[in-house]
Model the fold of this input.
Amino acid sequence: FEVCLIVNEEECMYSECKIIQITSDEPKIGVPNSFSPNNDGNNDVLYLAGSGIESFELHIYNRLGKKIFSTNDLTIGWDGTFKDKIQGVDVYIYKLQATMIDGSSVIHQGSITLIR
Done:
């Protein structure tokens, strides 16, 4: 980020800018709570998000408890289909198990709302 200080005192003006880099080495992982696979180019595919992920398994289930999507690849997300059939607007359940680069284990469960 570029941060600038500008001082304007009567007839005297001074400014100075510095580049500030913000980094975090802390591993983190998360699943978005909604997405909209309606082919508008925004949030059409649900991807796992995070950094410092060594390995993971993400499973998504419908309201009947049937597994309709699984991945262990960050580049593969859910497009809102199951066996090439468009899934309806609904709340889906996910289960996530991950191992982070610091050796910690993460287990998350939650819901994802599919909006069209």
Remarks:
- The first strand starts at residue 2 and ends at 9.
- The chain has a mean pLDDT of 92.
